[in-house]
Amino acid sequence: MIMVIKMDMYEPIKPALASPSKNLEDLVKRTEFKQRGEIAVEYKIDGFRCEAHCGDSIALYSRKLNQLSTCAYPDIVEGIEALGLENTILDGELVAYNPETGKLVAFQETMKRKRNEFNANSFPLKYIVFDALMVDGKDITDKPYNERRKILEKIKWNDTVELIDAKYVNTVDELKEFYNESLDKGFEGVMAKKVDSPYDAGKRNNNWVKLKPTITVDCIIMGWYNGNGCRETWAKEGPGLGAFLFGVYNPETTKYETLVKAGTGLNKEWAIELLEKVREVECKEMPKDYVAPKEKEPDYWASPEYVIELRGQQITKSPTHSCGYSLRFPTLRHLRQDKKAKDSTTVSEIEEMFAE
Prior knowledge:
This protein has two domains: 17-211, DNA ligase/mRNA capping enzyme (D-amino Acid Aminotransferase, Chain A, domain 1, 2-Layer Sandwich), CATH 3.30.470; 215-353, CATH 2.40.50.140. It is built from eight helices and 22 strands. The strands form four sheets. Strands 13, 14, 15, 16, 17, 18, 19 and 22 form an eight-stranded mixed beta sheet that branches. Strands 3, 4, 5, 6, 7, 8 and 9 form a seven-stranded mixed beta sheet that branches. The two termini are 35 Å apart. It is of the alpha+beta class. It has helices spanning 24-30, 33-36, 74-81, 107-115, 145-153, 172-184, 268-279, 347-353, and strands at 17-20, 39-44, 48-54, 58-61, 67-68, 88-96, 125-135, 138-139, 161-163, 166-169, 189-193, 204-211, 215-226, 241-250, 255-262, 282-283, 290-291, 300-302, 307-312, 314-317, 325-328, 331-335.
């Protein structure tokens, strides 16, 4: 059943979401590739989600549906205005790039543009569009992916606002080739999309499936532990930071359950900056919607405010953590300012990533 969306210009709409896959075989299964005989694949961009409303003026919205200051993104606004679109809603990613090489830069550099007002020394941004919800005042969310793609291909894009490269593949070998190509070019991985799927606003399902080379999970910071040795100095004042306690969301119980304790990937500068943020949401007692770990609790609890992307080798069974699983060899990657706590990875998704 297709959800009917009442679509008004300048009212943000929840974005469609992708389900994670463990490997190529899992992606093939989720997309029903062998039965369908064809899927569309796109490069997975490591930027931050942006919904652009194009009409009498330009309005930009984050994944959380917060309106972004157009003053912070004059390059993007100028690029969108140059398209000459009317009553159109685009979906894509904002990502910074090096103007000397043309290559996209690390996510942390992109997030600097999100955190700070635009200045001449900033890396410029590209808006890489991969879908649309409305074009010329017509709601196209119920049209299949391949029809929406044809509509987008008719737009005259420019150097600042680009349409993402996409390819229709018919064999697993073609899929593998595109996946390896995406990694060789420095992308995060691939997005695979069913060619007949509508735009499912606000939903995460197997119409869109993402694949990265290693397991990545988006976890909330539930608390933290004091540091020892050199990490005793990893704070502006008071005890330093040893590690954070991370958790995932269980929508069935509306609780946050622990997944892993981790501090790898931090340097002193980032640790101090991150600890200052988390201290602002410190709780004297464990929040009521938390399920504590079965062993050592953190020295301090924090309310579910900050989401961090972790990278690890695999999901394993855990007798220690309350979700029943843990992430092996976890490394902190970056703060996901574009996600709310309930947008974090869910317990059921962790279960799906688990492989005996």
